[in-house]
Amino acid sequence: MSKFFLTFNLIILGINPLIAQDTTSAIVEDSVESIYYPGKPLLMSLILPGAGQFYNKSPWLRTASFLSVEIGSIAAYFHFDNQASQYRNDYKAYADKNWALADWVYNRFNTTSQSYDSKIWTNFPALMYLTGTHHLTLYLTGDLADEFGQYPSSDNLETHPEWLDSGDISVVKDRHFYENIGKYDQFLGGWTDARTDWYWEEKDVGDSIEIVIKTPIKEDYLDQRELSNKMLTLAKYSLTTLLFNHVISGLEAVWTSQKIALENQNEDTIETDLSLIYNPINPGGIGGLSLTINF
Predict the structure, then answer these.
(1) Around Cβ 95, how many Cβ atoms within 10 Å?
(2) How far apart are CA 96 and CA 103, in angstroms?
(3) What is the Cα–Cα distance from 187 to 134, expressed in whole angstroms?
(4) Model confidence at 33, in pLDDT bands (50, 70, 90)?
(5) How far apart are CA 249 and CA 56, in angstroms?
(6) Ramachandran region, residue 148 (left: φ > 0; alpha: ψ -120 to 50; beta: rest)
(7) CA-to-CA distance for 287 and 3, rounded, in angstroms?
(8) What are the boundaries of each domain within the chain?
(9) What are the pLDDT digits (tens) for 125-154?
(10) Any alpha helices (H) in 188-215, and if so which ranges?
(11) Which of 210, 191, 192, 189 lies closest to 200, judged by CA?
């Protein structure tokens, strides 16, 4: 590292500071290995946690810790994400087997006499209409598609239940379909055990009590969806851990590199020299003082 010196000449006219580079001192005094760049370990750790610690020659356990968290977070993300996908496929297959558009329409117009806890099917408006707060998307073919379009709303079944007899109708099983049939009472009639095993329960939603209508099959379906969503949440937590590991590793690498740089700076000696300036005009030949600081 090149040396610099700062010279103050105190003469009669005042202080004249001069800064110059010490060309006589060779770079031999400080080797290249002793130069630390704070930005470099930061970038290294942001790319790969632990790399900045390795660059700073930190204890191996610190480097290994950040690297282990990195590997563990990545492995955890793929594990939980794969689990969520598997559970998602399972509950979709379960719904395809146990929920039918024909059952939903039939139970709307042919109410069951089965009661539960002193209430009957007709006590719940959500079960008495195919229309409501949400709807499913239908897929029509043939003459129905020509007349009503290819993708009408399921609300049309309230006035056109005969569409089911045509054979040109099915339901679009997108993300909204799998959410709606489990979340809203409006679609309860589509579950295969709705006529015989439906029941209702109270659910505390904070400021009020909400009536929720279920069947054992629907309850099982909801549990499967919840398990899949839990796996997705854990996958998101893994990504969050991964992100924080990069940031914390980068901050620690910068802190350590600055600490090393400060220690190296403190180890450097600061040399000073005080001498007289000769001035033949002044009596005694003294024109001032010269103070030199080497650093």
Answers:
(1) 21
(2) 13
(3) 9
(4) very low
(5) 12
(6) alpha
(7) 28
(8) 4-23+31-77+237-294, 99-231
(9) 999 999 999 999 999 999 999 999 999 999
(10) 194-197
(11) 210
The encoded tokens of residue 171 equal 């339901």
pLDDT, tens digit, for every residue of 85-109? 999 999 999 999 999 999 999 999 9
145-165 residues labelled b (16+ CB within 10 A) or e (exposed) = beebeeebbbbbbeeeeebee
Q: Under a CB-based contact definition with an 8 Å cutoff, are residues 2 and 22 in contact? A: yes
Q: How far apart are CA 34 and CA 25, in angstroms?
A: 17
Which two three-digit tokens encode residue 36?
A: 């630390």
Q: 246-285, pLDDT tens digit by residue?
A: 989 988 888 888 887 777 776 554 455 545 565 666 555 5
d(C-alpha 203, C-alpha 210), whole Å: 5
Dihedral angle of Cα 54, 57, 58, 63, to the nearest 10 degrees: 20
Cα 241 from Cα 235, distance rounded (Å)? 10
